[in-house]
Automatic annotation (TrEMBL):
Homotrimer. CDD domains: CuRO_1_CuNIR, CuRO_2_CuNIR. It holds the Pfam family Cu-oxidase_3. This is Copper-containing nitrite reductase. NCBIfam families: Cu_nitrite_red. The keyword Signal applies. It is an enzyme of class 1 (oxidoreductase). Belongs to the multicopper oxidase family. PANTHER family: FI03373P-RELATED (PTHR11709:SF394), MULTI-COPPER OXIDASE (PTHR11709).
Length: 345
């Protein structure tokens, strides 16, 4: 009897020692074990791809050192057809370049500020454990470069943004993006991945008023955006820029919300999210119609496309979609499937 009790106590102790969080997606990393992970192999220089594209999946590789280059820029671009705006960006796109690493990776992040910038900029990555998410360490004057190192301890999909003063202005002008920290062993394989980030813009002129538009501080404070958009432009992901998939494929959207003010109710008309990584973390919700994405937050949504057609992406706070620009399209091609969907008359 004594021996049984001893072995039971031993088993309990072992269980305690191995305590770890096992998430729905099979991630088995604790912050402590991530901290102890050694990096190995060749240093990777992260590829710069423009949204809605993302770097290839990490898969099963070991933790390594990754060098990320970002450049803060201030440049004019199109906010809507015939409407221009002086955007502040990371790597000349809104949102900025998608950063893709795995838990345990050591990142050497270079933030350059373009020589023709007027303002200092920096970066706060929500994936970082450390003061300001790196903001103080990267405050950089025009023409200069700052470098800081961090180790990714927590898997998930995280927002990064500029946090230079005045913070709301830097975010309102488009300085945000996403960083994905994949769990050990990677994310489940899917056929397509796309990067979508919502943000609001506050202009002096009304929605669609032509010409170069200035930032409107009062509208910003009052949370009355002139534009709510995906990927930096009204109706950006429509027409030639629509996303694509084929019947039978699985699709994953990395969806972020830069804000600066609004919470997004992300929805795809005619589809149901089979899986949502709630708030970009480990928890998975299934069979979701609309997912809430807070300002400064993100979510991963996955679904299989069963029927050809045009599927419309919206913020289901619906005036934002049809009047202010938070609308996009996923074009699905392939064989019709009358068992799933057909018009009778
Ligand atoms: Cu900035």
């Amino acid at each position: 009897m004594k021996r049984i009790i001893t072995s039971f106590a031993l088993a309990l102790l072992t269980l305690q020692a191995c305590k770890q969080t096992t998430s729905d997606n099979g991630a088995k990393t604790t912050e402590n074990s991530a901290m102890d992970m050694k990096v190995s192999g060749e240093t990777e220089v992260q590829k710069k791809l423009d949204p809605p594209l993302v770097p290839a999946a990490i898969g099963n590789r070991a933790a390594k050192k990754v060098v990320v280059h970002l450049e803060a820029t201030e440049e004019e671009g199109e906010l809507a057809d015939g409407v221009t705006y002086k955007f502040w960006t990371f790597n000349s796109t809104v949102p900025g370049t998608f950063i893709r690493i795995r838990v345990g990776d050591e990142v050497e992040l270079h933030l350059k500020n373009a020589s023709n910038s007027v303002m200092p900029h920096n970066i706060d990555l929500h994936a970082v454990n450390g003061p300001g998410g790196g903001a103080e360490a990267t405050n950089v004057a025009p023409g200069k470069e700052a470098i800081f190192n961090f180790k990714a301890l927590n898997p998930g999909l995280y927002v990064y943004h500029c946090a230079a003063a005045p913070v709301p202005l830097h975010i309102a002008n488009g300085m945000y993006g996403l960083i994905l920290v994949e769990p050990e062993g990677g994310l489940p394989k899917v056929d397509r991945e796309y990067y979508i980030m919502q943000g609001e813009f506050y202009t002096k002129g009304k929605t669609d008023e032509k010409g170069l538009q200035e930032f409107d501080q009062d509208k910003g404070v009052d949370e009355r955006p002139t534009y709510v958009v995906f990927n930096g432009k009204k109706n950006k992901l429509m027409g030639a820029d629509a996303l694509e998939a084929k019947v039978g494929e699985t699709v994953r959207f990395f969806v972020g919300n830069g804000g600066p003010n609004l919470v997004s109710s992300f929805h795809v008309i005619g589809e149901i999210f089979d899986r949502v990584y709630v708030e970009g973390g480990d928890m998975i919700n299934k069979n979701v119609q609309t997912t809430v994405i807070p300002a400064g937050g993100a979510a991963m949504v996955e679904f299989k496309v069963e029927e050809p057609g045009n599927y419309i992406l919206v913020d289901h706070s619906i005036f934002r979609a049809f009047n202010k620009g938070a609308i996009g399209m996923l074009k699905v091609t392939g064989e019709k499937n009358p068992k799933i969907f057909h018009k009778v008359q």
